[in-house]
Amino acid sequence: MVQVRAQYPTNGDGSVDIAAWIERIDQRVSLSSPQVLREACEWALQLEQEAIAEENIWAEGASSYTTGLEMAEILAELKLDQDSLVAAVIYRAVRERKTDLPSVERRFGAAVAGLVDGVQRMAAISVSQNPAKVAAFSSQSQVENLRKMLVTMVDDVRVALIKLAERTCAIRAVKDAPDEKRYRVAREVFDIYAPLAHRLGIGHIKWELEDLSFRYIEPLQYKQIAALLDERRLDRQEYIDEVMGQLRQQLEEAGIQAEITGRAKHIYSIWRKMRRKNIDFSQVYDVRAVRVLVPLVRDCYTSLGIVHSLWRHIPNEFDDYIANPKENGYRSLHTAVVGPGGKVLEVQIRTQGMHEEAELGVCAHWRYKGTDTASSSSNAYEDKIAWLRQVLEWHEEMGDIGGLAEQLRVDFEPDRIYLFTPDGHVLDVPKGATPLDFAYRVHTEIGHSCRGAKVNGRIVPLSYILQTGEQVEIITGKQSGPSRDWLNPNLGYVNTPRARAKVQHWFKQQAREQNVQAGKLMLDRELTRLALNGADYAHLIDKLGIRSQEDLFAAVGSGDIRLMHVVNVAQQLIEPDTHSEQLELIPKRPSKPGRRGDIFIQGVGNLLTQLAGCCQPVPGDPITGYITLGRGVTVHRADCATAMQLQDRDSDRLIEVSWGSERVQTYPVEIYIKAYDRSGLLRDVSQMLANDKINVLEVSTRTNKDDNYAAMLLTVEVPNINMLGRLLARISQLPNIIEARRNRKENSA
Prior knowledge:
Layout: H1 18-28, H2 34-53, H3 64-77, H4 82-95, H5 101-108, H6 110-122, H7 139-153, H8 157-173, H9 179-199, H10 203-217, H11 219-229, H12 233-253, E1 259-264, H13 267-277, E2 288-294, H14 297-310, E3 312-320, E4 333-338, E5 344-351, H15 352-360, H16 365-368, H17 379-398, E6 416-420, E7 426-430, H18 435-442, H19 444-448, E8 450-455, E9 458-460, E10 472-476, H20 497-508, H21 512-529, H22 537-544, H23 549-558, H24 563-574, E11 599-601, E12 609-611, E13 623-627, E14 633-637, H25 641-649, E15 654-655, E16 657-659, E17 667-676, H26 681-691, E18 695-704, E19 709-718, H27 721-732, E20 737-742
Parallel strand pairs: 2-5, 12-14
Antiparallel strand pairs: 1-2, 3-4, 4-5, 6-7, 8-9, 8-10, 11-16, 13-14, 13-15, 17-19, 17-20, 18-19
């Protein structure tokens, strides 16, 4: 059990005797190198003395040094490893900016620095304790989002335990603080950290956090129940120990191998039960409780008889959940007796299998008795909680959590991320969300009028991928209305279905003429950019099931049909056998003429094949083959000028080819970029290509000084035409870019 206040061994001058304290810690936890922990204590003391000299202290009477020792005491009770204790000792010094993480890493290594950094990231949750009163957010949803954010941030279970120890020290330390601060800290602990301790199965910390926070949140109720108990919790625990000794002796004499545990119900739990069941204190029979675990079902009833023979049974306070299980499958024997000294005692008797089901199964108490079960949680959240509990169970079995170093990282991928608003509220959005997605999550009108965003005070592009724990501020403009570019998936502005639906709905409300004009412009631009001008609109609308060309433009303009869907259908009409969407990356690309698996030659066996340099076809393009002398088959685009000349001159050497099932990593494509000349233009384009991991084979740049235009020809490698579309769209968004399109090289030989 955690002490209310740790008592440290002291020297003659009243200072903490570090050597004696470390020796006491070493008795609880086997330290691999006590000298390292001693160094951490001495450094923490030195940092505090320097801060006092510089008047760099956070609060009067607060000591980061003694707080660190107190945190280490709590963690030692949990049998945590040495790295965790060292991190606990120096955490407050880092938090109070008396030192920094690089200094910690230099002194104690990356593992300790990582733990301190993890606890610091969790500390960001404290900013949520001063939210503005905004009607759009309910307090319950806020608390739930804060809990989920907290768990999402935890990659190492030791980080969560250090944070729990730190909050335990914080709630203890506010005893003499002003009422406002006491309430604020208690509210945070009660809403966030006590449920976390409960979900992780750390009962003694959970009880202390709940009782102390309840004491400051509901002082009258706390004092009332404390007066009714008329004894300290420690006295109740001693009583439980005495009862357990008597019962253990009787069971051993009866030949029953039983595991007996006990607990004294804490004040908040008593108040909660009285309120939930609408009963008086005199009707709470489990203020003191003992649990007996036995091997077999028949041992349960034998043990029950022994209990009733020892102490007088209270009528109507016996429940046989073994013969009549609860709806959730819970099984156990519950009875209430008048124990030694005339005090009421509850006894639970069950087998080991029943206990495991009750603790970890669908009827687990932490699934329905916690304060964080009001609403359904995501699977990822529940999975991570279960994983953290599993790690703690491994720790209990193995003794030293340091032995689990390689297993401490959480492998669960969160399905949602949690973000702060400028007012301190927390909102959840799907993983991969952008500032625009966040804006529409806050309010539809804020999304429509969004013109920029700040993340942690820094301006970011609207395509920025947000991360858990970031604070997002949306910059709005006077003109309310989204941009049609937001619907272009190539640009990455909107990634969530909710935001996309809001944008589509807005454009759907606009005049049909506007949507027709905008849709035609968007479609023509994209087909031209991808060199798909040969698409037949009559066949296209027939394939899409649309009545007229105008309806097609209106659907594209309003967002009812995605632009890339129309482009892909156009590709399929030109080349029905294309499999460009299924192309996968393969480590090696043929660079010389050879037998290519990605090209299929009709009616002919394996021949040497090569892609023509004049038109550079990629999967999705209509293609034709030309039989050369000694170099196999050269593959041209069907609309290539060179191929058309060859058809007129040597039509008998043309052969039908199509894209095969085997995939080649990349294909060379020449793109043309026209822009207003400026310093750094080539650098920006190169950086864009590098970010997308696009390989550049050739670059040619020409500048017209008279018109101040720059023309760039780049040969790049892309896996398919969809990737080419995304690349051209992103290049078009760069400053000063006039156009970016695929170059046909029609006049090449």
